[in-house]
UniProtKB/TrEMBL annotation:
<dbReference type="InterPro" id="IPR006597">
    <property type="entry name" value="Sel1-like"/>
</dbReference>
<dbReference type="Pfam" id="PF13432">
    <property type="entry name" value="TPR_16"/>
</dbReference>
<dbReference type="InterPro" id="IPR050767">
    <property type="entry name" value="Sel1_AlgK"/>
</dbReference>
<protein>
    <recommendedName>
        <fullName>Sel1 repeat family protein</fullName>
    </recommendedName>
</protein>
<dbReference type="Pfam" id="PF13374">
    <property type="entry name" value="TPR_10"/>
</dbReference>
<dbReference type="InterPro" id="IPR011990">
    <property type="entry name" value="TPR-like_helical_dom_sf"/>
</dbReference>
Amino acid sequence: MRNLGYLADERGRPEECEKWWRAGTEAGDATSAYNLGYMLAQQRRMEEAAQFYEIASEAGDVEAMVNLSNVLDHLGREDDAEQWLHRAAEQGDGGAMNNLGSRYFKARRTDEAEEWWRKGAEAGEREAMYNLAVVLDARNDVEEAKRFLKAAAQRGHGRARRLQEEMEAEQGPGGRPHIQGIF
């Protein structure tokens, strides 16, 4: 059924695609649930998308957990969104760890933000490396900030690369490099 959904999707037949992925979901296929959640979110049918992403998430699909979190945020269900993002982060998703850090930072929960950005950085997530570097620099932990900035730049993070070049070229206030970021 899932493959029939893919075929219908390739042929530009969303109603038929939805039919097959619904049938796949009813038969217990979590990938069909994920695919349908994705399609419904693209169509801005967010309540329905959340239902299908939740089915896939309950089956352990980490990407579905992250997407469910985003949909729940869109629906104004921030506590539920945070819970699913936390579950994805606990499963080792570096992007979820970074997003969780950003969520905590916006809520002025900076210790938790740093903790999750560090975990994301250690998982290889370049945006978490960059965010952690900014926090470390703001705390005057310049050497560790440079280390994470370099790692992010090596993974193709554009802002990190530019800042790394600037840090090498000039010194900021007090004779030390300074990263311009979220502070």
